Amino acid sequence: MSEKLKYSRKKEEIKKCAKNVFLSHGFKKTTMEDIASKMGLKKNTLYYYFKDKDELFNEVLREDLEEILGNIKRALLKCKNAEEKVYTYFAVFSNAYIARSKLHTLDVKILLEFMIVFLKSHDKFFTKFDDVLYGILNEGIKKGEFVKHDVRALATLLLEINISFEFRHLTEIAFESSDGTCEYNCSSMHNNMKNTIKSILKGIKAKTK
Fold it and tell me: Between helices 151-176 and 127-142, what is the axis angle to 10°?
């Protein structure tokens, strides 16, 4: 096995382990020592692959968000029109957080922390999600489904509204859940978000003859 392949494999092992540790303890509480200890390595070994905890966390977060984005794009291929694509986009986006929280029995505060990091990393991650939504709205204009509007502004607004719904719901769970985990019914949040999107899209729908 070449040194380059060994390096790549070890790096992937570290990221996989780090993801589980971050999900267990959160970003702030996790240390490089925690991750190294989990892998049976010395802390200095990690710095051969990542310059610091921030870089390692960003790599883990980037891969996770790329997976969500990939799921969104695949789901959009099954949609018949731009309006359906908008609803599907946000359904997949929201379900991604639900699926991850249930898989890892994730503490609500940790998930909220991850969402804050996601928003602070706007240039790296947020823009990619914004661009996909921008493309959907543009498609709607070109196909005559939507009237002309400020597509970039609306895409950003819709995404921020969705995240606001997520924050509100998770905050409620953080105060109401007896064990602090994200095992919850999200149908109410999804319905509220869908109704909000419906009201907004109504304002840009092209009139049918």
Answer: 130
